[in-house]
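Section 5.1 Outputs to date
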Amino acid sequence: MSDLHRGNIMLDHDENPTVIDALVGSVSERHVRNLPLIQNAFDHAQALRFGRKYEDPSVLRLPPDEEL
């Protein structure tokens, strides 16, 4: 589990992507399987790692303002 996002990835002097600021810790398989937010973070991290496009599931999107 981490706080990895585009703002935490910069290019070094050789133009290689480098993580500059991230909170990282381990998460049990049980939590990855049973908690949608954790599963989403895991899926997103894998997509970033392998260069795939990732669309967040609708359950995690913010509601339109008129619903508030």
